[in-house]
Amino acid sequence: MADSEKRFVKLYSQGGWSRGMEIWVDTQTGVNYLITQCGNSGGMTALLNRDGTPVISPLPVQTEA
Questions:
Q1: Taking 80 as the threshold, does the pLDDT of residue 37 lie above it?
Q2: CA 2 to the chain's CA centroid
Q3: What's the order of all strands across the beta sheet hosting 19-26?
């Protein structure tokens, strides 16, 4: 799969190598996911709007070069 055809792309990153948060988007559905890391553990969940619906980016996803 070429880089231009990646299923998930990173939109945002905050923190360092042992503790941080990232937002990834599914390029086929537009759904955004929040990924957290702290040491050797972490988690992933769909990023939600205030009303509980998932955050969905417009397709095609625009990323910084």
A1: yes
A2: 19
A3: 8-15, 19-26, 32-38, 41-46
DSSP code per residue over the chain? --GGG-SEEEEEEEE-SSEEEEEEEETTT-BEEEEEEETTEEEEEE-B-TTSPBPBPPSSPP---
Q: Which two tokens stand for residue 55?
A: 């955050």
Mean pLDDT of 16-25: 90
State CA 3 to chain mean position distance. Answer: 16
Q: What is the pLDDT of residue 44?
A: 95
